Amino acid sequence: MIFRSSNLSQPLNMMRCRYLSRLLDEEEFKRWFNTALGTVRSAEGDLERGDYNWACFKAHQSAEFAVKALLRGLGLGAYGHSVSALLTAAPLQLKALNVLQQAKTLDKYYVPTRYPNAWAEGSPADYYTREDAMQAIEYARSIIRWVEEAWRSLRQERVW
C-alpha cells in the first residue's frame, strides 16, 4: 500500500492511522467488543462469589478481547494472548502507552490463575485475593474505555 500525503513531514504512522480509519470494520469491532463487555461482567460476578482467581483471569480475557476488537476492526492481525503485545500493534496516535502498564499486570493472570502446576503447591484459588480481583477488573475496564475512545476517535477521522 502506498501512502501519499501533501505534508511530507507527517509521520507515516499517522498516515497509516488515517488510512486505516477509512477501512473500519464496524461489525467485527462490535462482535469482539461486546464479548469483552460480557466477559468483564462475568469477572465481576466471580468477584462477588469470591472466585478471585477466575475474576483475574476473566479481567485479562476481557482486556484481550477489547484490544482484539480494535485491531480486528482496523483489519489488522490480532493473534496471541498478551494484552501488552497486542497493544504494540495499535497505531501510535491512539496512545496505547497510556494503558500498557495495566496490560502488563493483566498478562500475569493468563496462566497461573487457572493451572495448579503454575504453583509449587496448592491451587490457583489459594493465591488470589479480593484486592487482586478488584484491581484486575479496574485495569480491564480502563483498557476497555481506552479501546472505546480509540474507536470513537478513528470513526470521527473517517473520510467518506
Short description:
62% of the residues lie in helices and 0% in strands. It is mainly alpha-helical and 160 residues long.
Describe this entry's structure for a reader.
- The chain is mainly alpha-helical and 160 residues long.
- It has one domain (24-157): Nucleotidyltransferases  domain 2 (Four Helix Bundle (Hemerythrin (Met), subunit A), Up-down Bundle).
- Helix content is 62%, strand content 0%.
- It has helices spanning 12-21, 26-49, 52-73, 83-87, 97-107, 130-157.
- Helix 2 packs antiparallel against helix 3 (52-73) and helix 5 packs antiparallel against helix 6.
- The radius of gyration is 18 Å and the shape is elongated.
- The two termini are 19 Å apart.
- Mean pLDDT is 89; it is low at 1-12.
Low-confidence stretches: 1-12
The CATH superfamily bears the name: Nucleotidyltransferases  domain 2
Topology-level CATH name: Four Helix Bundle (Hemerythrin (Met), subunit A)
What is the total tally of β strands? 0
List the helices and strands and how they pair.
Layout (H helix, E strand, L loop, with lengths): L11 H10 L4 H24 L2 H22 L9 H5 L9 H11 L22 H28 L3
List keywords for this structure.
6 helices; elongated; mainly alpha; 160 residues; Four Helix Bundle (Hemerythrin (Met), subunit A); disordered N terminus; single chain
